[in-house]
Write a structure and sequence with these properties.
single chain; mainly beta; Thiol Ester Dehydrase, Chain A; 6 strands
């Protein structure tokens, strides 16, 4: 049984843009196929909440080879999307100027559960809730939903990040 939503997903305005792809690129180093966020649609620093959207086109790069005929989004890419969301949030709340030349990357993944599939085209909504943010590491609970049915969780995981 999935946990409850980390916060009210249905109240999100998925078309609201807090940060577009260019603003995400200012802090996240992933490019091309590995950019797993299209925009950030919500951020509440005080509550520790963040939400982003990944537009998955019909002809997505992994669709040809990951289960031909039934192109399921790889679970590792769902987690990568969540990690990129958390990394972006850390850059917003922590003075990273002391970390020049370093990125905020994966430190661990715990309690992963896949609860549904994603077939292109789709819009993946990923939400994160800060558990702790410290100078050396951050921990977030994350969940993913399909935009056309925000009651349907497709994954959940605890993401730990650290400066590398």
């Amino acid at each position: 049984m999935p946990r409850s939503a980390l916060f009210d997903v249905a109240s999100l305005d998925l078309d609201h843009v807090v940060a577009d792809i260019e603003a995400i690129r200012e802090h996240n180093p992933q490019r091309y196929e590995f950019e797993q966020l299209s925009w950030i649609c919500h951020m509440d620093v005080e509550a520790g909440d963040v939400a982003g959207v990944l537009e998955i086109p019909e002809d997505v790069w992994w669709g040809r080879g990951h289960c031909p005929g039934r192109p399921l989004m790889p679970g590792v890419l769902m987690l990568e999307c969540a990690a990129q969301l958390c990394s972006w949030f850390v850059h917003q709340v922590y003075d990273s100027s002391q970390k020049a030349g370093r990125i905020f990357g994966f430190g661990g993944i715990d309690d992963v559960k896949y609860r549904g599939i994603i077939l292109p085209p789709a819009r993946l909504v990923v939400i994160g809730k800060r558990v702790e943010v410290r100078p050396r590491r951050a921990v977030f609970d994350t969940q993913g939903y399909l935009a056309d049915d925000l009651s349907r969780m497709v994954f959940e995981a605890r993401i730990t990040g650290m400066w590398v």
